Model the fold of this input.
Amino acid sequence: MESILITLTGPDRPGIVELLSGWVAELEGSWKDANLHYVAGQFAGIIEVNLPVGRQTELANALQGLRDYQYLIQPIEQSRTEVQHKTRLTVTGNDRSGIVKEISQAVNQAGGNILKLKTRCRPAPNWGGDLFRAQLLVGVEHTQQLDNIRANLESISNDLMVDFD
Done:
């Protein structure tokens, strides 16, 4: 078996996941990890699949049949390093230009690695603008780094709330 990563984007439509998983099954592959999302009317997915050696071309041929979709298939290196500790946190505050850059910089400077990021911006009339919310899964080598991440995030601005799960 060979591990590959499929990245696929295009217009959302019912049955797209069934179609993809069907192709993997037909090729005697195994669907491993996946993150699939609906964003602004579009489907965006990243999928880890194990396929028997030599079947990757068949999968690529099947994906080519998806008109209006873009895809990328790439091999996964087997030497993956796992972070020692993972934590979830939520950052909420007034939306503004550069807020994701500031959050990612604060995490990075404290030695954290953003493993997953989900953002949402919604109108907040009582706040006088839009309310920004980011949910993160952060990996660190040492739990002490979490205190540094919190301090860095809270120093961004007074209106930013940071909650660790």
